[in-house]
Amino acid sequence: MSDFPTTAMVLAAGLGKRMRPLTALRPKPLVEVGGRTMLDRTLDHLRAAGVQKAVVNVHYLADQVEAHLAGREQGLEIAISDERAELLETGGGVTKALPLIDGDHFFVVNSDNLWVDGAVPSLQLLAQQWNPEIMDALLLLVPLARASSHSGRGDFHMDPAGRLRWRRDGRMAPFVYTGVMIVARHLFDGAPSGPFGFRLLWDKAMAADRLFGVTHAGLWADVGTPPAVAATETLLATV
Fold this sequence. Notes:
The chain is an alpha/beta fold and 239 residues long. The chain is 24% helix and 27% strand. The protein is built from 6 helices and 14 strands. It has helices spanning 38-49, 62-70, 89-97, 122-129, 199-207, 226-236; strands spanning 7-11, 32-33, 36-37, 53-58, 77-82, 105-110, 113-116, 137-143, 147-148, 156-158, 164-166, 175-184, 211-215, 219-222. Helix 2 links the parallel strand 4 and strand 5 (77-82). The relative contact order is 0.19. Residues 8-129 form the Nucleotidyl transferase domain.
């Protein structure tokens, strides 16, 4: 655990269109699930794992997110990556924030998914499995059958060594990306300066056989729509 990442990038800049009307007057990361915002739940995981700094990007209703973060209890350094001028998507948002991010590798966490740890906390599991000699990115995956409120067909196939390949068009795949990963800083070398999604970087890592996954053993929910909020609250009541 000596290489445990000290910094996490928290993606909180999305428009939350699928979550309307809940996001008409508030950003999606501040939607509450079980009496706590999704952003706070994410930051709680980071702090509990020992992460020292969270870089949070903001765009839609950015002032609300900044005010909320300013009111949080201490214990985790917060830095803001401002995307008010242009929404940069997942890959572009992290690229812009790199000057604020410490370390050769770091966590990237979506603020709009919710997870409950299994026997080993998932951030620790990622850190334990991280091997910079063979990996550019290590993704936390959940089996499609256990992806609560998720309506997709899965994202990845994973071989016995943990290497990932995309689901083929029109087919199913057994694993869903949870929105949590460790990524190497050098994977961003040569990345575009404008908006782009993480798939561009994952394709780059996959082409070099350096995109890996590990299976999340706890609960996970895709909290993307208002009905998913109620379903996730029901799921949390079973924990």
